[in-house]
Design brief:
The chain has 628 residues and is an alpha+beta fold. The protein is built from 15 helices and 23 strands. Helices cover 32% and strands 26% of the residues. The two termini are 43 Å apart. This is SacI homology domain-containing protein.
Length: 628
């Protein structure tokens, strides 16, 4: 197992040492400079020397190779979140990059890569435990072998798998390296000591985000050829009863993007352009085969609108489900906005009733009971299916439905555990109800920030059980912020995901991708707009002579024309002003050469939909698509 470490030296000219002082003799991880070569040895010397002279750190997040060098990412601070059956869970709160190259870093692209990684780790909620496998649900842990935690980690949720790759490769020849490999999940963890009806228990919620097809709201949609969907999260609700030998109950739900090929293409409009591509029947089959293997029967809940902008996604999903014709994949449609209009979110109960009619209640939950003789927990019940919920983003509507389904299941679990008597309701315990609602609302916010950049919508209902006008106003503000972030700031966020997860290798790139290759005319338009606004403001606000009214009016009129043209140009060529990812090409847009119509010289590149290569920019002609 991994353990807290001591760093013997940050400044050694030849290597960095990490010492696990909990083994006897201490185990030392050596990472040489500047190559990053790894060796692990046993230290037969003074076992207390590192505790005296070294710096204690919680662990190693990984080793990353960028453009010109390697870096060891060290977790320097963590906070305790709580306990699961005696196992401590931590959240990463601070970290440090240790360069394996001496001297200051002056390469601008290297610094850009570093800033992307640092931002990702800073904003990404990451959790770990030295003794508990956070990547696996309670039920999956029952069949996991007795090996190092990282070896039984679920590959989907082992967030720093790529960063740990060099240690993992070395461990194949020296198992002593296992103790330095620390799996981390990205998502949300809450563990609270509480009680219901004076019965002490631990209430927990763990959301695990998949590292496959991970990304931001508009830059990661739908499914890939391996059957992975965007924004896939597994959420596990836990109840550990302390008065019954730590009997444990677990209920798992999933969410993920509609498993067809589709995208929403940012173009500065409030609603991006929706495109549904070729049939994804075969990849949808791969996706659901994976889901059945992990969870059993899939009960798919689709919450997208049946009319308007979202209708093509609904139709494509239903077509794929029909072609699958799989008895282990059931489908129910619930038009959330229609059924719950007028802030009547309690009508989600209609959906739960329909799931019960379909037999979804028979999937049950996982339960383990303590065996006092063997001093272990043994499974008593297994969850044999899962509810897979989606809306367009798998955020706001999905959050409401998942929290209500979790509450409905919690009622059944507590009755089964005899915590509640017949006719009793967990909502009657106001203290626990407040905890339950806030934990689920916090979970919604964490998942939403990771994908959309803002907190979730509709969380006033999750927190209070009521939809309020104040909540609606907050949703409006979040929607405006989402628009701004998704169009102008999400490119670097997507790049950070791709870099940390190993989808882009800086050391393989000849030409750094951070240059702005747009034509000068395209680049200048926002500055022309700013300048026009500045000039108009100056003309209106600065003192002027009484006889200058006509000239001032003419001056303002000229700048209004300039402002109008520049805004019109930007609106007409919205794709050129979206902050696109630069590290990994997207499926549905590509860079095109812009050539001068007279000389044929390349003036730059702009983004364009791949199906519209023939589109034109005013005063310029476009040539072939740029190939990397």
């Amino acid at each position: 197992m991994s353990a807290p470490l001591y760093v013997s030296s940050y400044t050694s000219p030849t290597e960095i040492q990490f010492i696990n002082n909990l083994t006897s003799p201490p185990t030392v991880l050596h990472i040489s400079k500047p190559t990053g070569e790894i060796t692990v040895t046993k230290n037969e010397g003074d076992t207390d020397q590192y505790a005296t002279f070294g710096q204690s750190v919680p662990g190693i997040l990984g080793i990353m190779r960028l453009r010109i060098g390697k870096y060891v990412i060290v977790i320097t601070k963590s906070e305790k979140i709580g306990l699961i059956k005696g196992h401590v869970v931590y959240r990463i709160t601070d970290f440090e990059f240790i360069s394996l190259r001496d001297g200051a870093i002056r390469d601008k692209d290297e610094l850009t890569y570093l800033s992307l990684l640092k931002r990702h780790i800073t904003t990404g909620p990451m959790y770990f435990s030295y003794t508990w496998d956070l990547t696996n649900s309670m039920q999956r842990q029952q069949v996991a072998p007795e090996v190092a935690i990282w070896k039984k980690a679920d590959e989907r949720f082992f967030w720093n798998r790529y960063a740990q790759n060099e240690l993992i490769e070395y461990s194949k020849t020296n198992s002593d390296a296992d103790q330095f490999i620390l799996p981390v999940i990205f998502g949300y963890v809450s563990l609270s000591k509480t009680s219901i009806n004076d019965v002490p228990l631990t209430f927990g919620l763990i959301s695990r985000r998949s590292r496959f097809r991970a990304g931001t709201r508009y830059f990661s949609r739908g499914i890939d050829q391996q059957g992975n969907v965007s924004n896939f999260n597994e959420t596990e609700q836990l109840i550990v009863l302390e008065m019954q030998g730590e009997d444990t109950y677990s209920f798992v739900q999933t969410r993920g993007s509609v498993p067809v090929y589709w995208a929403e293409i940012n173009n500065l409009r409030y609603k991006p352009k929706l495109r549904v591509f070729d049939s994804a029947f075969e990849t949808a089959r791969v996706h659901f085969d994976q889901q059945k293997k992990s969870y059993g029967t899939n009960n798919c809940v689709n919450l997208v609108n049946q009319k308007g902008h979202e209708q093509p996604v609904k139709s494509a999903y239903e077509k794929a489900i029909k072609l699958l014709d799989d008895p282990e994949v059931s489908y129910v449609y619930f038009d959330f906005h229609h059924e719950c209009r007028g802030m009547k979110f309690h009508r989600v109960q209609l959906l739960i009733d329909r799931l019960v009619e379909m037999g979804a209640d028979k999937m049950g939950w996982f339960q383990s009971v303590a065996d006092p003789e063997k001093q272990v927990s043994v499974p008593k019940k297994l969850q044999n299916g899962v509810v897979r919920t989606n809306c367009m983003d798998c955020l706001d509507r999905t959050n409401v439905v998942q929290s209500m389904l979790a509450g409905w299941t919690l009622q059944k679990i507590l009755v089964d555990a005899k915590v509640l008597t017949f006719g009793g309701r967990w909502e009657d315990d106001t203290k626990f109800e407040l905890l339950f609602r806030n934990v689920w609302a916090d979970n919604a916010d964490y998942i939403s920030r990771a994908y959309s950049g803002t907190g979730a919508l509709k969380t006033d209902f999750t927190r209070t059980g009521k939809r309020t006008k104040a909540g609606a106003i907050n949703d409006l503000m979040n929607s405006i912020e989402r628009y701004t972030r998704n169009n102008f700031f999400d490119g670097p966020r997507q790049d950070a995901y791709d870099l940390f997860l190993g989808n882009h290798h800086p050391y393989e790139v000849v030409e750094p991708p951070f240059r702005d290759h747009r034509p000068l005319l395209v680049q200048s338009m926002p500055f022309i707009s700013y300048g026009a606004v500045l000039m108009i403001g100056a003309a209106l606000l600065l003192p002027r002579a009484n006889d200058a009214k006509l000239s001032i009016s003419l001056f303002i009129g000229i700048w209004l024309v300039v402002l109008g043209y520049s805004v019109y140009f930007i609106a007409q060529h919205g794709l050129a002003y979206v902050n696109w990812p630069r590290l990994v090409p997207l499926d549905y847009v590509g860079e095109q050469e812009v050539v001068h119509p007279g000389t044929g010289r390349i003036r730059g590149w702009v983004m364009s939909e791949k199906s519209k290569i023939e589109s034109k920019i005013r005063g310029l002609e476009e040539g072939k698509k740029r190939t990397e």
